[in-house]
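Quick one, probably user error.
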């Protein structure tokens, strides 16, 4: 069983949201040893963000990349292309000092990081590929031939 609550720290005070419910759940646990872990809260990317990325940004950018001469054969390859361009993470070998860029994982992105990543792709498409990808709020119908 996992118990999760949000806490807020201001100055030297730490407050648990719904502290009474938290105490109640702790009291209902069976006897035994437990590990308590406190981690900083972060808001993960949302399903609508992922939907927009996979249903709109990737297909339209694939079309623009193809017109620009890139030979990408699947949406997965287009996704890797964009992550390699705009979502790299440096990995350092602590023995040799060698630095290598690896694409970050979308599953680890926050809402803000995902928004920044998608905006970078859209801006690149507009500036270098000559095509605009509509805003997420725009309702459009697409007809794609596979």
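Nope, works fine. Designed sequence:
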């Amino acid at each position: 069983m996992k118990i999760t609550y949000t806490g807020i720290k201001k100055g030297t005070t730490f407050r648990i949201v719904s502290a009474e419910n938290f105490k109640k759940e702790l009291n209902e646990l069976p006897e035994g040893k437990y590990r308590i872990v406190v981690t900083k809260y972060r808001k993960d990317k949302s399903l609508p963000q992922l939907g927009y990325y996979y249903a709109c940004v990737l297909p339209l950018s694939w079309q623009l990349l193809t017109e620009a001469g890139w030979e990408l054969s699947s949406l997965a390859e287009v996704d890797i292309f964009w992550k390699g361009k705009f979502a790299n993470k440096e990995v350092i070998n602590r023995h040799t000092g060698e630095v290598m860029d690896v694409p970050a994982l979308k599953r680890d992105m926050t809402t803000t990081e995902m928004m920044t990543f998608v905006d970078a792709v859209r801006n690149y498409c507009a500036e270098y590929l000559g095509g605009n990808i509509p805003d997420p709020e725009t309702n459009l119908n697409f007809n794609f031939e596979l």
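The mean pLDDT is 87.
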